[in-house]
Protein 1
Amino acid sequence: MTVSRRAVLTTAAGATAGWGAAAPAVADTQAHAKAPAASLRALDAAADYAVEKVRSVAPGVTAFPVGTKFEKWTYSQNGDWVGGFWPGTLWMAWLRSKDDAFRTWALESAQKLAPRQSDTSTHDLGFLFYPSWVTAWRLTGDEAWRTGAVRAADSLIKRYNPRGHFIRAWGALNDPANAGRVIMDTIMNLDLLAFASKQTGDAKYLDIAVEHAKTAQKVFPRPDGSTPHVYDFDPDSGAPIGPNTVQGYSPTSCWSRGQAWGVYGFTTMYRRTGDTEFLATARRLADFAVGALTADHVPVWDYFAPQQPYDIKDASAGAITACGLLDLAAATGRQSYRDVALRMLTALAQTCLTRHSARADAVVARCTRNRPAEDGVEISLPYADYYLLEGILRVLQPQDVDRAIDLSTV
């Protein structure tokens, strides 16, 4: 059943913060579906490894990890686009361990993102503020985190182009370069807007999120369910120009992390709106990604690159896809999506962790940031660590993850 955005606002506007803030409980299909014992053991061990790795590294982290060089984190002072994932990982480690040192580190790290609330130069405010500030509010009840996240949403909606019905990805608002550029990644930033509407009772944020998602679902999916990384529009008229890429092999290829963002993001938009078209789009993208997996269940960096299935891997795409498939299983009641997600998470836990390195700062190896630019090929990335822990805890501790990021469906 499709639920109106007004109904979403009406039912959610009065939610209270803190551990009791999670709206409807996680769907039974996700929370109680059985998993193979061997997989559960592997995920349990991986979660504990991740917690201990983060515990050992956190005292020395004074900025935001962006990627590794010779297995050591390199840092951004302002967070770049990934700043939300380090505090998000700390929150996941706290949920797993109940050690308040992680809580303290998470809050200290998130606070350093405060200047970015007013950043109108990027679409990545959801990545920056949802796993950090929204989660902080949900787990502490401190209104300052909620208020800051809504301010970030105010900045994000300034990037909306009403002629093309899209949120531009890159570039300052007064910069004509990339003014009509839309990328798959943006679908993941829309949940910050859904949060803002839910908390303020103002439909404008969710309206913009829905318009962008509708535009994306018109132009990105191909008949086989694959997607390009980029789609360009004329920013003045809003007219579509055509597909392109920055991080994929070509405009006609399928960058695996972009596909992962789509699976997760369209499922989230369904959960926030009840619009079954978003669910159908998520399923199309998921079915393609599942069909493109190799036997090892770790995605190659681009599903259509000439050397696939023997090309380099991107474990971050695997972790993100697995989280999206778990969501999709809960939304559709289809165990098959959950089964693949479990196989992917188990594969990552068994073949992509840094267990055999004494010097590694990160949890997950075998990630690829930007292959065409030869930037970060087979390194570690902060979002791989975050989404691996999120995915594992979705299986092992779903109610805790629900409290942190809201797994409910309207």
Note: Strands lie at 64-69, 72-76, 160-161, 166-167, 181-183, 230-233, 240-244.
Protein 2
Amino acid sequence: MKIGHLVESLDPCGVSAAVADLAAAGPAAGYGLVVVALTPSAQPGIAARLDRTATPVVELNLAPWDPRAVPQVLRALREHGVDVVHTHGLRPDVVGSAAAARLRIPAVSTLHHIRTQPADRGDHLRRTAKTLARKRFVTRTIATSMLQRDWYRAAAGSTAGLSVIPDGAADPGTGTPEAAARFRRGLGVAENEVVAASVAPMRRGQGQDMLLDAVAELPPDEPVTVVLGGDGPLRPWLESRVAGDELLSGRVVFRKDIDPVELLQAADVQLHTTRHDTMPRRLVLGHGTGTPAVATRVGGIPEIVTPETGALTPVSASRIAEELVRTVRDPQLRARRGTAARARFLERFEDSVWAEALGAVYRSALGLAGAPAPAELDAPEPVLPRHGSG
């Protein structure tokens, strides 16, 4: 089988990083990928990764809602002999389903972002209309979390045609003690000090401001250094806040250019204190490195972090601080949770598991012999609360 994945761009901060992992795992599950991006990316990293797996890549240069989009995507899919179209995102969904219809091949679409709080009745009606259109024009929809399943059912009325398959990731590995020791020496931390790392993008809603509030509440002698990795529009403001606070500047370190996996491999704890998130990939990667988590209980995060693999807190700086202190002071707890996090990643999120689950969807959509019947792939209906009769 040849599966055409349609994405907005090959931006490494988007879904294309996961698609690159799938390209490496797909052949063992019986299929190859073709990746079509609607807009070019100035960053070559994802294209290089796809090239290493001999995955064909087509980068188009289409303005938003360019009328040439469907013909150009249609041409790319036809030239590469695609059997199924798999779309990611609003514009790829519209363009990809139209191209699939003209080619008379199945279309599969993954839900990546949802809004659980409609602004008003009109907004709710528009989302419902989009969901019903998806049911009509897409062979199967993939939700990455049970949270999305429940949202979809509320809009569409049922989960028929919907599968829940979490996005996977290539196994990042746990790293080596030598590499972790080198990293810690670079930070200047003492041997008995705990390194807590956050690798979430520094943008609105990701909660780094709340994390700094939590760090400010830690006891002064707590042996912990907090490392903020990555970049984003809020980084200058966060750096300015830390630089202007003597307590924070002695405990918080920024590492803009470090590989997030390398940072997680060297850390003792992963911090993910977002205010909203669906299924954060970097939290999944943290489990893959065997790093226990302290995370906020929002969105789909409880489907990643369990009591065995980390601590879930309310969206509260004080509660984050409490759980971080507890984790810092109990090395046996960190070790148990780290081992469990690694096991959960391999069982649920490792890319070969993901590739096999998607392979069943693709074979079913094509009606291949031995493939599951569509109803077998439907997500279970959520258990709705019973209302008393009064």
Note: The mean pLDDT is 90.
Protein 3
Amino acid sequence: MRIAVTGSIANDHLMTFPGRFADQLVADQLHTVSLSFLVDSLNVRRGGVGANICFGMGQLGTRPILVGAAGADFGEYRAWLDRHGVDTGSVRISEVLHTARFVCTTDADHNQIGSFYTGAMSEARLIELKSVGDRVGGLDLVLIGADDPEAMLRHTEECRSRGIPFAADFSQQIARMSGDEIRILLDGATYLFSNEYEKGLIESKTGWTDKEILDRVGHRVTTLGSRGVRIEHGGGDPIEVGCPEEEAKVDPTGVGDAFRAGFLSGLSWGVGLERAAQVGCMLATLVIETLGTQEYTLRRAHFMDRFTKAYGQEAATEVQSHLT
């Protein structure tokens, strides 16, 4: 499968606060919050949901096509992604804006407060998927991830008009989107991704029930944190997959992106929804054990040992041939 991933390309500035955000909040003063946190560490990492997902897919050998916009400062980042199996030929380079930036602080309970500067990401709306497809010989699936909102709408409408299957994945952008925009973005999606909280927010903003949404999408994929993932589709029993045992819990940033990378790679291999979700959960576990969204190393033997322990020999046999 030729899978294109549209979404943000960004540099992450990740900080660690040794206390708890909750201890700093005064219940009757939440309308006038003014806080600063003295952090213990700062790590500057490569990030952005589109690039994170593509990096994970590249590690699994599925050669994803990254579709997004970056600044003239993208050269080193592009070389990194190219070395790790990502097709960056469809990334638009802005002549005037810097690559987007995510600034995030994580507390001792792994709660997070973050801000996002869009920068060159605003030019993603100028990218046409037809030109991407023409360059690579067609597209089998487009994941429409968190990006410039106008770009997300344009890519969705283009997928519909050209008959390209697409996956809707609002993630961070759901907070600023209206119900009308969300309805447009999810209607007709082959896959709808969200976490458990976002699932409720989608239903609240659209005014659609869970069943009404399932009637409008092929599959609804809901990540459940440490409990794994649930996949639902109209008329069938849900598929639930748990997470492998963690060796450590270092940083949750990018865990959802890693799940999507593994899941999409599984779809590309044709191993079925349950196996694809298992690959996604295994890759997500590697990321939560690592500081940074693209700092993990996928060692095949180590990956398969842990995958086998979590999901059994039959599942491992189906997946292993695609990693060898």
Note: The chain is about 35% helix and 20% strand.
Protein 4
Amino acid sequence: MEAMIERCAGLDVHQETVVACVLFGPLDKKPKTSIETFSTTTTGLLALSDWLTTLQVSDVVMESTGVYWKPIWNILEDSFHLVLANARHVKNVPGRKTDVKDAEWLAKLLRCGLIESNFVPPEDIRDLRDLTRYRKKLIHHRTSEQNRIHKILQDANIKLTSVLSDIFGVSGRRILEAILNGEKIETDGLRKMVDWRTKASITDIASAINGRIRRHHRDMLRYHWEHMSYLEKAIEELEKQIDQLLSPYRKEVELLDGIPGVNKGCRDYFYCRDGRGYVRI
């Protein structure tokens, strides 16, 4: 195979150690080999960076196994041209496997230009991904708590869902808070709680909340309500951070917002473009 890179390195990454194999020398001759093992602590990875710099390495390849490659990428990305390889695409031939052989195999493939790199977005987009994915998880947890509240209301024979399209809207929240606090809800008080845009009549709503609610129901509702409120606050804070990180991409966001069916509430499906392609955020 024809060599294309004079000085390159292959990294076999594990949780506690990383084995590095450097191949260097003229392209028309058999390369020299240098192999070292480093710790994956920050001190060890900085030592790895210094060692690669000393050997004048230009390109470094590693497999995208788990999350162990990420701290190495974060430290080396400013000093070297990094290649993140799909483990299936660089699988070694069957035989006796060792960490040294795996690192050397990766280095050989990279030296001959036989590895296609996976796309790794820049640091700000990676941060944005973490926030939007965590936001999605929190939204799922909030929905689970809302479903549990629905279940308890049905068990207490409170039929709010029959008269309100969304019991977590303005009117529904006011009524639920009153129920949680054990208040006696009369017609005049109920009329103040219900928003004027609500289609259901006060009589129908009063009949729907006339259930058989016990102390146990109120306790369970309070647990779920407090957790749901905490999740909503966390989601709100996440969205503020997301908006800050989206500042350099306002133009892209506005263009995406112009697509029918896509808006800022669908941020999980936004894609931002940088120099190397589109990035899901």
Note: Residues 266-281 have pLDDT under 50 and may be disordered.
